[in-house]
Specification:
Strand order of the largest sheet: 1-2-3
Order of helices and strands: EEEHHHHHHHHHH
CATH superfamily of the largest domain: Winged helix-like DNA-binding domain superfamily/Winged helix DNA-binding domain
Largest sheet: 3 strands, antiparallel
CATH class of the largest domain: Mainly Alpha
Number of domains: 2
Strand content: 5-15%
Radius of gyration: 26 Å
CATH architecture of the largest domain: Orthogonal Bundle
Distance between the termini: 80 Å
Amino acid sequence: MTISSIKQQERLKGRYSVYIDGKYAFSLSADALLEAKLTVGQELDTAQLKAYEKLSVDDKAYTLALAYAVRRMRSRYELDDYFRRKGYDTELSQYIMQKLEALGLVDDEKFAEAWVRNRRLLKLVSKRRLVAELRAKRVVDDIITRVLVEDETDEQAVLSELIARRRKQSRYQDDKMLMQYLVRQGFSYDAIKVVLHES
């Protein structure tokens, strides 16, 4: 069996189709193709072809996982969950995780820092709520504690601003309803009482 041509795909510019004896055999990303050192005219036996077909499947899985990981930072748990949902076996999951780690895309501390920074930019949120969200992403408590110690956000100022915003809505004119909402958002009852008394 001879590699008769290697052509860049029209739809996926970063992938290359490999043809054997004039027929499509498999495709690889540019990086995987360079790593495999395949060339036109190269002879392959059946075992080599099977190995390259497996490499093609694994390479596609890695490309999808890479796109998932760069869309936004993910926790290690989120990536593991993604691999499970995709049906990747343990060996493939570990292979992809190692490649993502080598690129610096798997780091729960950086993930937690980015999560807190983004949530602070987008929403008025309590530290207790952030802890719950990070735990849901299976970030370990040591990391959560370190990241939140570095977060200099004034919790009382966040609470005051949230109360001011909610007071503009008719249903939150009632203190009891407002307090219930704020408790659900992770603020302590005592802190809420203090800020409500001051406002």
